[in-house]
Amino acid sequence: MSILLVTSSPRGAASHSTHVATDLAHKLVAADPSNTLVVRDLVANPLPHIDPDYSTGIYTPAEARTPRQAEVVGVSDAVLDEVFAADTIILATGFINFNISSTLKSWVDHVARSGKTFSYGEGGPKGLVSGKKVYIVLASGGIYSEGAAVQMDHAVPYLRSVLGFLGMTDVEVIRVEGVGMGADAVAAALAKATAKVDAIAAANTDQAAA
Known about the structure:
Blueprint: E1 2-7, H1 16-30, E2 36-41, H2 52-57, H3 67-85, E3 88-94, H4 102-111, E4 118-121, E5 124-127, E6 133-140, H5 155-165, E7 170-177, H6 183-209
Parallel strand pairs: 1-2, 1-3, 3-6, 6-7
Antiparallel strand pairs: 4-5
GO molecular function, one term: electron transfer activity
Keywords: Flavoprotein, FMN, NAD, Oxidoreductase
Pfam families: Flavodoxin_2
C-alpha cells in the first residue's frame, strides 16, 4: 500500500493535526512492511496559488506552453502523480477561520483538474480518482462536530464535497477538537484521536495478516 501524507498546519512542531496525521501514517506503514510513505509538507514547500499561467497552461498542448506555463503545470502534474500513486491519502489541516488552511486549498486547486481528475459527459460530472481511502485529520480550538457550532464547520463538508466530486468517496474524519479549551481538553482530544488512529492501524494490521 502506498500512503500519501499531506500536512498543512502553519503551527509547525506544535501542530496537533500534523502530529496525529503523522502518527497515523507511521502506524499504517508499520502495519505491513511492504507499505510505503510519501510526505508532502505544504508549509515547508507551499504550492503556488493558481494564476493566469496555470489557468491557460493546463489547456495548452505541452509543446506550445511558455516556460512559465510549463513550470506551473509541471508542479500540478507532480501533485497529481502523488495522488494517483497513493492507495491511502491522509490530509492534515488546522481549522482556520472555519475552513481548511489556505495551503491545503492550493493543493486542492492543483488536484482538481478537468480531464485529469474529473470529466464531464452526457451523464454529468464524473470523478476519475477512484479506489482511494482518505483520512482527514482536522484540529480545532473549539467543538464543531456537535452542538450549535456545527453550522460553522465548512472544512469537513467542503473536503467531503470536493473529494467526492473527484471520485474519492471513502473518507473518514479524525477530529482533534477543543484544543483551545485548556490543557485538560488538549489531553482529552489527543487521547480520543490517538485511540481512533490505533483502531485504524489495528484494522489494517489484521487485514494485512489475513
